[in-house]
């Protein structure tokens, strides 16, 4: 099952640049442990689905829960192979999520630290950027 939006305002968009660090979505909010990106990049819907399956297999026997914090909203277009220059922009090929450094992409809860580390490290191997394990910061009602 591919992740993509139900409808969008514009079918094709420009690629743009990913600048700066994440100011939103950069803390573990739902679970106890999260997978945080260290580099900017684009994550496709297929990569998100692959990580979801990997995390689910790693924690399902321990009764844990996972959250996906990113969604591919941006269409990426590509010209067919062996096509000459010109003739306009290519058709949308895939959908991607724009990831800034510091974005928490996946979260895991209800399992101990060792299980979470294994699950998230397996998921990070499927992503095109370096990641680190992030822990939930204690909130004292502030």
Question: Could you explain how this protein is built, in words?
Answer:
There is one protein chain. Helix 1 packs antiparallel against helix 2 (113-124). The chain is 19% helix and 27% strand. It has 2 helices and 7 strands, in the order ββαββββαβ. A 4-stranded antiparallel sheet has the order 3-6-1-7, with helices on one face. Strands 2-5-4 form a 3-stranded antiparallel sheet. The longest helix is centred in the middle third of the chain and has 15 residues, at 45-59.
Brief descriptors of the model:
142 residues, alpha+beta, Aldehyde Oxidoreductase, domain 3, four-stranded antiparallel β-sheet, three-stranded antiparallel β-sheet, 2 helices
- Roughly what is the average pLDDT, rounded to an integer? 95
Low-confidence blocks of residues: none
Rg measurement, Å: 17 Å
By DSSP (H or I, 4+ residues per run), the number of helices equals: 2
- CATH homologous superfamily assignment of the domain at 35-77 and 92-135: Ribosomal protein L16/L10
Distance linking N and C termini: 40 Å
Annotated CATH topology of the domain at 35-77 and 92-135: Aldehyde Oxidoreductase, domain 3
The CATH architecture name of the domain at 35-77 and 92-135 reads: Alpha-Beta Complex
User: In one word, what is the shape?
Assistant: elongated
Percent of residues in helices:
10-25%
Record field, number of beta strands = 7
- Give the ordered list of helices and strands: EEHEEEEHE
Enumerate the strands of the largest sheet in spatial order, edge to edge or round the barrel. Answer: 3-6-1-7
Which class do the helix and strand fractions yield?
alpha+beta
CATH hierarchy class name of the domain at 35-77 and 92-135: Alpha Beta
Multimeric organization: single chain
The biggest sheet, with number of strands, parallel, antiparallel or mixed sense and barrel status, is: 4 strands, antiparallel
Strand content: 25-35%
């Amino acid at each position: 099952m591919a992740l993509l939006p139900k409808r969008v305002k514009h079918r094709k968009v420009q690629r743009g640049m990913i600048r700066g660090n994440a100011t939103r979505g950069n803390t573990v909010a739902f679970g106890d442990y999260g997978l945080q990106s260290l580099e900017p990049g684009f994550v496709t819907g297929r990569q998100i689905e692959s990580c979801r399956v990997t995390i689910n297999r790693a924690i399902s026997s321990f009764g844990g829960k996972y959250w996906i914090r990113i969604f591919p909203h941006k269409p990426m277009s590509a010209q067919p192979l062996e096509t000459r220059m010109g003739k306009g922009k290519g058709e949308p090929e895939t959908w991607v999520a724009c990831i800034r450094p510091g974005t928490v992409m996946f979260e895991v809860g209800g399992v101990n630290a060792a299980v979470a580390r294994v699950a998230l490290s397996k998921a990070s191997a499927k992503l095109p950027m370096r990641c680190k394990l992030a822990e939930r910061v204690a909130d004292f009602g502030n």
